[in-house]
């Protein structure tokens, strides 16, 4: 299924992640997944919030410039080889995975995939 990911640039320093996540929590917005790509002085935080529109407003109010991207969200049973199976189906269909991150809890996992063709990917994953 399709989902919305918000990316924000943030200073790479102690407490910045706590600040951003705290801002989301105070607004009552749960984060389904997140990943950080960092450089020396700054990083990119990618989040999949339960309420992307509200999260975007909250981030803007806090001084950030969120960039919205449509991503493929794949929920499945957390079992050996599950990600290999997903990646294999996409590869067979000629869909490239540009980036991926996964969160797991309670025997289930959520894969967040930035793909070259989201419509085709949805059809392949079903």
Would you write up a description of this structure?
The structure is a single chain. Helices cover 32% and strands 43% of the residues. The chain has 126 residues and is of the alpha+beta class. The chain folds into two domains: 2-69, VC0802-like; 70-125, ACT domain (Alpha-Beta Plaits), CATH 3.30.70. A six-stranded antiparallel beta sheet has the order 2-3-1-4-6-5. A hairpin with a 3-residue loop joins strand 2 (31-38) and strand 3 (42-49). The protein starts with a strand and ends with a helix. The model has no long low-confidence stretch (mean pLDDT 94).
What layout of secondary structure does this protein have?
Blueprint: E1 2-11, H1 16-26, E2 31-38, E3 42-49, H2 52-61, E4 67-77, H3 82-92, E5 97-105, E6 108-115, H4 118-125
Antiparallel strand pairs: 1-3, 1-4, 2-3, 4-6, 5-6
- Rounded to the nearest angstrom, the distance between the terminal CA atoms is 8 Å
Tell me the name of the CATH class of the largest domain.
Alpha Beta
Q: What is the β-strand count?
A: 6
The Rg value, from CA coordinates, equals 15 Å
Largest sheet: 6 strands, antiparallel
Measured as a percent range, the helix fraction is 25-40%
Structural class: alpha+beta
Shape: elongated
Output the strand order for the largest sheet. Answer: 2-3-1-4-6-5
* % residues in beta strands: 35-45%
User: What is the string of SSEs from the N terminus onward?
Assistant: EHEEHEHEEH
Count up the helices: 4
CATH architecture of the largest domain: 2-Layer Sandwich
* Count of discrete structural domains: 2
CATH superfamily of the largest domain: VC0802-like
CATH-assigned fold name of the largest domain: VC0802-like
Report low-confidence residues grouped into runs of 5 or more: none
Average pLDDT rating = 94
